[in-house]
Amino acid sequence: MKNVLASRLGIAVVGALGALGALGALAVAISGCNRSTKQNDQEIRQKSAEATRQIQKEAKQLSANTKVAAANAVNGVKAVAQGVKDGVNSNKLGDNSDLVDINSASTARIAMLPGISITKAHDIVKGRPYRDPRALVHRGLLTQEQYHHIADQITAR
Predict the structure, then answer these.
(1) Is residue 9 a part of any domain in this protein?
(2) Residue 155 pairs with which residues in a beta bridge?
(3) Number of domains the chain is built from
(4) 94, 110, 126, 139: most buried, per Cβ within 10 A?
């Protein structure tokens, strides 16, 4: 998202700088003319005014493009924040797709649960099958406190 914003801003800035460069080149080219001073001064004045109008027009467009890019960036950040919030709240809303099934999960996956060592995970795997996650406490594999820490993260299917 930052790269898109930077890219759009960069293009607009390059356009504005190009107009400034053209103004400078115009001034140098016109000053080298061998016409009368009054005619050169008038021509420089007209070309400078024309270049300034062009720069003002491009600056307004740059400003509008910047506002659009900033609004898009804000919307993107809001979408990311909402996604994080949805992810954090997903288990609270009854979404159990991320629950660890103690009847089918690997020893390593069970050991990733808070407070569960690799040895404890191995014992859980050896004790399969389970009808209910609370069986881990009933069979003496976990204390009530250990079970309490992982109860909302496990299931027995």
Answers:
(1) yes
(2) 101
(3) 2
(4) 110
Q: DSSP character for 99?
A: -
Domain CATH code at residue 149: 1.10.150.320
What's the rounded Cα separation, in Å, for the pair 99 and 145? Answer: 19
Preceding amide of 129 cis, omega within 30: yes
Residue 103, amino acid: N
Separation between Cα atoms, residue 154 and residue 134, nearest integer Å:
10
Q: Would you state the pLDDT for residue 64?
A: 86
**80 in the same domain as 47:** yes
Convert the pLDDT of each residue in 82-101 to its tens digit.
767 666 665 554 555 689 99
Tokens of 144: 């009530």
Tell me the pTM: 0.41
Say if residue 81 is in the same domain as residue 19. yes
Alpha helices in 32-150 (DSSP H): 37-89, 107-111, 118-126, 135-138, 144-150
Domain assignment present for residue 94? The answer is: no
CA 59, CA 73: separation in Å to the nearest integer? Answer: 21
